[in-house]
Amino acid sequence: MLDILEETTASLPWTIRNKYVLMTGATNGIGLAAAHALAKNGARLGLIARNKDKAEACAARIRLESGLSHAHIDIFIADMSSMHSVRTVAEEILEACPRIDVLINNAGAFYDRRYWSEDHVEMTWALNHLGPFLLTTLLLSRLKENVESRIIFTSSHGHKMARNGIGYGDLDGSRLYGPFKRFLGGANLRYGETKLANLLYTVELAKRLQGTGISANCFDPGLVSTGFNMNNGMLAKMTMSCMKPFSRMPEKGAETLVWLAESTELTGQSGNYYKDLKIGNPSKAAQDLSSAARLWEISEQQISHILS
Ligand SMILES: NC(=O)c1ccc[n+]([C@@H]2O[C@H](COP(=O)([O-])OP(=O)(O)OC[C@H]3O[C@@H](n4cnc5c(N)ncnc54)[C@H](OP(=O)(O)O)[C@@H]3O)[C@@H](O)[C@H]2O)c1
């Protein structure tokens, strides 16, 4: 019966209704707004969150506010900066989800000083790049089982801050988070490097996935009023509230993300960077194919070192 259903739907145009969408970072900001919209439009959701109570409260809110008391929402718990946690949650997901249609790597943060992840990796790099890299790698086999699947990364205009590319020789951020350097743009540069990594990974992934039916795209949500940068003390909170009048609401920030997940016209489009429902302008560093290949190789090495 399932085979017949699969054969019949295979030739139909893409629709989000009944698709299984797995997302990180859906407990706040852009991700939460996207989860609301996707549930409302008929997607079945799997939320990967670090805080179970918060994730359950979000699921309850989505069900209530979308008027869909029986909306399908699974919750999986993981710290996306910990490679052991990501590996464990991927195993749980593969066990629990016979089908994944869309994977949205959205969780991310900015850190104004150097923190170490559980695996002793600089935190911004671990959370914004290495975690999504590993999660995607571990779920690829399931995504490949469909006629069409989509992988989406939340990148940022901020990738342009890393105009000289990624400092592969200093992935632990020593040159960026020195005593004064973090105030002189070092922390911004590190964030920019990780968002550049989202773009370069998208390009390399799309290249490697050609012919599989899986697309990989990323987008810039614009400046959005969320919990972003609220983890960096009073001054950062004051800065973010000053920027609020110039920021978008989370629903607007999520618009391109929802469109990338839902739009029929995007079938077959892969390896692109979008902004405001159209192709955006990536930096020159984001078009460096040798850097994209190097990023892949270095990320694999880092992960195998951590998990060995
Ligand atoms: N806001 C902007 O102006 C802007 C602009 C460009 C790009 N972005 C990107 O947009 C994405 C979403 O950010 P946002 O603005 O919506 O910020 P946000 O409101 O702070 O949301 C961040 C999300 O990531 C989750 N998260 C953070 N650390 C995590 C961890 N270690 N493990 C698992 N989940 C974790 C958070 O979970 P909790 O709810 O538990 O904290 C939350 O769900 C990020 O990738 C960010 O870089 C934002």
Summarize the structure.
The protein is α/β, with parallel strands linked by helices. The protein has ten helices and eight strands.
Note the topology.
Layout lengths: L1 H9 L9 E5 L4 H12 L3 E6 L2 H15 L6 E5 L5 H14 L5 E4 L17 H21 L5 E6 L27 H27 L5 E7 L12 H11 L6 H4 L1 H8 L10 E3 L2 E2 L9 H19 L1
Parallel strand pairs: 1-2, 1-4, 2-3, 4-5, 5-6, 6-7
Antiparallel strand pairs: 7-8
Helix pairs in contact: 2-3, 2-9, 4-5, 5-6, 6-10
The structure holds NADP nicotinamide-adenine-dinucleotide phosphate.
Write structural notes for this entry.
This protein has helices spanning 2-10, 29-40, 52-66, 83-96, 123-143, 182-208, 233-243, 250-253, 255-262, 289-307, and strands at residues 20-24, 44-49, 73-77, 102-105, 149-154, 214-220, 273-275, 278-279. The chain is an alpha/beta fold and 308 residues long. The chain has a single domain (14-223, 251-302), classed as NAD(P)-binding Rossmann-like Domain (Rossmann fold). Strands 3-2-1-4-5-6-7-8 form an eight-stranded mixed β-sheet, with helices on both faces. It binds NADP nicotinamide-adenine-dinucleotide phosphate (NAP). The site of NADP nicotinamide-adenine-dinucleotide phosphate (NAP) has 26 residues, from helix 2. NADP nicotinamide-adenine-dinucleotide phosphate (NAP) is lined by residues 24-25, 27-31, 50-51, 54, 79-81, 106-109, 127, 154, 156, 221, 223-224, 226-228. Keywords: Oxidoreductase. One of its GO terms (molecular function) is oxidoreductase activity.
